[in-house]
Amino acid sequence: MKLVYIFIIIVIFSSCTTKKVVKVDKKDRIKKIEIFFKSIAKRRERIKSIQIEAKADTFNNGKRVRGKLMMSVTRPGMLRIDTLSPFDQPISTMLVSDNNLYFYNFDEKKMYYGIATTKNLSLFLPLRINLKQFIDMFSGISPMIAYKRHEFRYLEDSAEYELVLINENVKQVIRYIAHDLQIHSVEFYKDNKKLLLMKFSKIKISNGIKYAKKIYFEDFKAKSKLKLIITDILYNGDVDNSIYKAINWKYDKEELE
Q1: Distance between CA atoms of residues 113 and 115, nearest Å
Q2: Measured between alpha carbons, how far is 218 from 227 in angstroms, rounded to an integer?
């Protein structure tokens, strides 16, 4: 029941990379992972709401699909994502509010609804993450697997912090540009086989907050790729909370477990 188009939202981070390598003096480098986490969490505190418009170019098993996204997120737990065709025809709407999840597929004339659990969110997203992690991604904070051991280091050549999280046969590798703690890439592996890759580029600034205008996403298992271009973004703007209310729906409904 994974629905095409929706997976593209998981990469809308306020994140970036840059071709220019800015070295960090040894005395200023973060050496402990606990300090690193505290520094990253400051981004969460700064961002209360995000509104985004973006163009997406996806490749799925050789098939190319283009579309448009309109997304609004307000902390602590409200989300709306509208997916449109290149001709601005509505394809789907996803709503999360008061821990309730609604997904409207206008082509199928069907609504899916239930509690916004990790399991139900994963029906529409390629990653198994909870709502808090999902919203964190829009603030430039990568979701993290539950890990038993980790490695944290400064990479001299690229001037990045690399965080490696390992749990049994699953590994996640996250890289942040060291001088400004902007996320550069995220990789997931299972049994040493790469499953997912996300890369971020073309830095822009909105209301003093950096984000990636261009984002590349590849799901190796699903054989799908995405190029996402953010055309408009606003941090901490005024949001009418009525946009998160459930839509009056007269067609088929299916309750999620």
Answers
A1: 7
A2: 9
Q: How far apart are CA 226 and CA 199, in angstroms?
A: 11
Whole-model pTM: value is 0.82
**Pair 165, 143: CB distance under 8 Å:** no
pLDDT reported for residue 60? 79
Query: Quick check: is 22 in a domain?
Result: yes
Q: How many domains does the chain have?
A: 1
Q: How many helices (H) and strands (E) does the chain have?
A: 3, 14
pLDDT in tens, 103-154: 999 999 999 999 999 899 888 775 677 888 888 877 888 888 899 999 999 9
Judge whether 241 lies within some domain.
no
For 162, the token pair is 């690399």
User: In this structure, is the dihedral angle defined by the CA atoms of residues 128, 197, 65 and 243, taken in order, positive or negative?
Assistant: positive
For residues 56 and 225, the answer to whether their CB atoms sit within 8 Å is no
Contacts of 171 (CB under 8 A, 6+ apart): 164, 165, 188, 189, 190, 192
The pLDDT score that the predictor gives to residue 230 is: 92
Range of the domain at 202: 6-235
Residue 167 belongs to a domain? yes
* CATH number of residue 99's parent domain: 2.50.20.10
Q: What share of the chain is helix, strand, coil (3-state, %, to 5)?
A: 15, 50, 35
Asked if 119 and 106 touch (Cβ cutoff 8 Å), the reply is no
CB 139 within 8 A of CB 118: no
Which tokens sit at 251? 């067609």
pLDDT of res. 94: 94
Say if 87 falls within a structural domain: yes
